[in-house]
Amino acid sequence: MINITTINRKLSTFATMDVVMDISLCTLAQLAVGEEGIIHSFTDNQTSLKLLEMGCTPGEKIKIKYVAPLGDPIAISVSGYLLSIRKEEASTILVQKTMSNR
Fold first, then answer.
1. What is the pLDDT of residue 4?
2. pTM of the model
3. What span, in angstroms and rounded, lies between the C-alpha atoms of 15 and 3?
4. Predicted pLDDT of residue 13
5. pLDDT at site 19
6. Contact of 14 with 60, CB cutoff 8 Å
7. In what order do the strands lie in the sheet with 25-27?
8. What is the pLDDT of residue 2?
């Protein structure tokens, strides 16, 4: 089981990196199909615990694979498998956008 104190410590470590590295961040929900990013942090502690348990950990590469016809849910590739999440959950994941070949 993941301890919420450990999560907060890890998130605060990543948050301090913004000052040093000037990282341009967006939410996972803002990425289009085929775009990739590196998970940076989360905006909601309660949702972050659930996402961490499903393999969405800071530093992990993530890619938008599919979006449902009405825009929700979305399928993402993370930790070697496809995961379907709601757009509301995706909006709590901050990512550093990376270049991809779609």
1. 64
2. 0.72
3. 19
4. 56
5. 45
6. no
7. 25-27, 93-98, 36-42, 61-67, 74-78, 81-85
8. 59
Residues of the chain with pLDDT under 50: 17-20
Q: Three-state DSSP class for 102?
A: coil
- d(CA 70, CA 72) in angstroms, rounded, equals 6
Tokens for 48, please give them: 């972050």
Predicted local distance difference test score (pLDDT) of residue 36: 93
Question: How many residues make up the chain in this entry?
Answer: 102
Q: At residue 33, what is the residue type?
A: V
Kindly give, in sequence order, each residue whose CB lies less than 8 Å from that of residue 84, ignoring residues fewer than 6 positions away: 73, 74, 75, 76
Q: What pLDDT, on the 0 to 100 scale, is given for residue 94?
A: 93
20-28 contact pairs (CB < 8 A, 24+)? 23/96, 24/96, 24/97, 25/94, 25/95, 25/96, 26/94, 26/95, 26/97, 27/90, 27/91, 27/92, 27/93, 27/94, 27/95, 28/62, 28/64, 28/76, 28/90, 28/91, 28/93, 28/94, 28/95
